[in-house]
Amino acid sequence: MKHAQKASVNSEIAGRSGVRGLVTTAVFAAMVALATMVIQIPTPGTEGFVNVGDTIIFVGAALFGGQFGLLIGGVGSALADLLSGYGHWAPWTLIIKGIEGLVAGWLAHAALRRSGTGVQMVVGLAIAGLWMVVGYFLASWIIYGNVLVAGSGVPANLLQAAASIALALPLTHVLKKRIR
Known about the structure:
Elements (H helix, E strand, L loop, with lengths): L1 H12 L4 H21 L2 E3 L4 E3 L2 H12 L1 H18 L6 H24 L4 H27 L2 H6 L1 H26 L1
Antiparallel strand pairs: 1-2
Helix pairs in contact: 1-2, 2-3, 2-4, 3-4, 3-5, 3-8, 4-5, 5-6, 6-8
């Protein structure tokens, strides 16, 4: 009986139903926005910045799945853009970070549920992070009409993805024991 209760609580937290799921989703989206806004290292050429918001996206997605990652990644990151004066990036961020959270949730959450190896989780998060790099490259290319300008943001986005994975792995490991 106790195992069935935990499963239903986890499905609520994952944003599928209930007030608890809604509140958890909102809190994680706010944490994504805050983590994105607290540390912003500007990247030349693209008007973007390096941040640690992806860490929270990766943790939430790994713990609660793709739908949860989609919501917190897209909404939290777009909100940070709007509040930080990067409103012109918010629609792009909503899509790019939402998909990043979805992919991270599909792959890393599945690895975590199967008690997969850390390597499986790293690969899942790396694929999500690579999507973010490609997504911002394409968005920059469209916005600026220049592949060189778009390419100038790639190293910083790769660094952001790698750092976020490195931070997310131990956080996820600690938190998964607390919520399950």
